[in-house]
Write a structure and sequence with these properties.
Elements lengths: L1 H52 L2 H12 L39 H13 L28
Length: 147
């Protein structure tokens, strides 16, 4: 009986690490197969994109959409602010700085907007003349720095 128990312990000591190693390797193999499937899908998508870019019609469409290219004789229109402008309240005509995110505005739109803002500087407050009363009597309308 003791011999049988020692044989059983010996088998357990040698087989448990081997079994654990085998299970870990199986898990790694399954993970790598999953990665292989994902990379295969990515390669297929990139090949499809490469086929699209080899088509001149697709290249022209992308140039028109992304770079705003037009053919000779065509006129391009770009809507800068698609939202409705608020009603004028009779305030100043100075354009307000952009409040919205500039992430979806093309670079030339941002450049133009900065030029429009820089071209119409904010009005500086006008100082009223200070009345200075000399010791002798009559008020004067000279600025206070004229003393």
């Amino acid at each position: 009986m003791a011999i049988l128990a020692s044989i059983f312990v010996m088998l357990a000591v040698t087989l448990v690490p081997t079994l654990r190693s085998t299970l870990n390797q199986r898990r790694q193999i399954n993970d790598l197969r999953g990665q292989l499937v994902q990379q295969g899908e990515k390669v297929a998508a990139l090949k499809q994109e490469q086929r699209q870019w080899s088509d001149p019609a697709y290249v022209e469409q992308q140039a028109r959409e992304r770079l705003k290219f037009v053919r000779v004789g065509e006129t391009s229109y770009t809507v800068i602010d698609a939202e409705a402008a608020p009603a004028d309240t009779g305030g100043s005509k100075t354009p307000a700085p952009m409040q919205a995110s500039t992430a979806n505005i093309p670079w030339y739109g941002q450049l133009w907007q900065s030029m429009v803002i820089a071209d119409a500087p904010a009005k500086a407050p006008v100082k009223a003349p200070v009345k200075v009363v000399p010791a002798g009597g009559q008020p004067s309308t000279a600025p206070s720095s004229a003393r």
